Description:
This protein is of the alpha+beta class. It has one domain: CATH 3.90.1030.10. The protein is built from 4 helices and 3 strands. The chain has a 3-stranded antiparallel beta sheet with strand order 1-3-2. A hairpin with a 6-residue loop joins strand 2 (95-102) and strand 3 (109-115). Helix 2 packs antiparallel against helix 3 and helix 3 packs across helix 4 (73-86). The longest helix is centred in the N-terminal third of the chain and has 18 residues, at 14-31. The mean pLDDT is 95.
Amino acid sequence: MRHNHGYRKLGRTxxxxxxxxxxxxxxxxxxxxxxxxxxxxxxxxxYIEKLISAARVGDFNAHRFVFAYLQHKSATKKLVTEIxxxxxxxxxxxxxxxxxxxxxxxxxxxxxxxxx
Length: 116
């Protein structure tokens, strides 16, 4: 029995999970708000807040750090130049999760994750 396990597996292999979080993060950066499953949203919140905290510095190394995770030029540029400077005086809590509905097909809990 492993206590204090640091992340959710989301029913995927490690490479699939990494790709999923990267794609969700890119979608959130491009659209500022996305609807997904509750547990995916909670994992994405942790992932994206680390990137925003790094991007707040705004130097070249921060740009490289964010690009290493996202591997998407326009999303990296938008995060470093537009989104992160808005939170320069904020210590954390850059995103908000709101539960919305149950998905019709499988009654899975859905949530909207958006920037504050």
